[in-house]
Amino acid sequence: MSMEGKTRRITIDPITRLEGHGKIEIFLDESGNVERAYFQVPELRGFEKFVEGRPAEEMPQITSRICGVCPTAHHMASTKALDALYQVDPPPVAKKIRELFYNTFMVEDHALHFYFLGGPDFVVGPSAPPQERNVLGVIAKVGVEVGQKVIAMRRKLREILAAVGGKPVHPVLGLPGGVAKRITPEVQKQIRAVAAEAVGFAQFTLEVFHDVVLQNTDYVNLILSDVFTHRTYYMGLVDQDNRVNFYDGWIRVVSPDGKEWARFQAHQYLEVVAEHVEPWSYVKFCYLKPIGWRGFIDGADSGVYCVAPLARLNASEGMATPLAQEAYREFYATLGGKPVHHTLANHWARVVELLYAAERMKELADDPELTDPHVRTLPTATPREGVGVVEAPRGTLIHHYQTDERGIIQKANLIVATQNNAARIAMSVEKAAKGLISGHRIPEGILNMVEMAFRAYDPCHACATHSLPGNMPLFIRVRDPKGNTVATLRRDFDGSIHRDA
Amino acid sequence: MRQPAGKPKVAFYWCASCGGCEEAVVDLAERILDVVQALDIVFWPVALDFKRADVESMPDGSILASFINGAVRTGEQEEMVLLLRRKSQLLIAFGACAQIGGVPGLANLWDRQSIFQKVYLDSPSTVNPEGVLPQVRIQEDGRELSLPVFYDTVRPLDQVVEVDYYIPGCAPTPKVILHAVQTLLSGELPPRGSVLAPDRALCEECPRRDTKPEKLLLAEFRRPHEVFIDEGKCLLAQGILCLGPATRAGCEALCIQGNMPCTGCFGPTSRVRDFGAKILSAVASITGSNDEQEIERILSQIPDPVGTFYRYSLPASLLRRRRRGALAEGKG
Question: How far is B220 from chain A (nearest CA, A)?
Answer without folding.
Answer: 16
